[in-house]
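Feature request, filed as a ticket because there's no other form

It would be nice if the structure record came with a short human-readable summary line next to the tokens. Right now we just get the raw output. Example of a typical job, pasted below so the devs can see what we mean:
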Amino acid sequence: MSRVFSHHPILLVHPDRPEAAYLRDRLVTEGVRHPIVISPSIDDAKDYLFAATVAAPLQARFLPCLALLDEKLGEEDVRDLANWARSQPALSSLHLVRLTSDHGPAGASEPRGLPWAVPEAIRADGPLDALRTLIERVCPPVAETP
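Raw output as currently delivered:
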């Protein structure tokens, strides 16, 4: 029997698997009920997103509502993903957010010109209140089908 999700997944693109797993575990502890899919690279993220768009007509709940992009990803790679996602009609509501552990001013590592990006980057090394609030705002639950 397959598991039916009641929430759209969140795509976490992070090149360091242990750090990504730690952040996923923290989000779950904070009460985030969305499945969190970890992708170690931009190319893997594109593969996942492409597969989700192919399944979208039948299973829209597999489309992520949010892509969290770690600051360790190169600016050019992030822009490439953003441009590619923008060209996919099924991903028109995908929000792209840059995660940072920067202790400088908020938004210091935000890539400029990203579509759907929030006004400032989200710090992932401190309290996760801002990230949890963002998830609640942009990732509505999906109605389950019997």
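Something like this underneath would help us a lot:
The beta strands are 10-13, 36-39, 66-70, 95-100, 122-123.
The longest strand covers residues 95-100.
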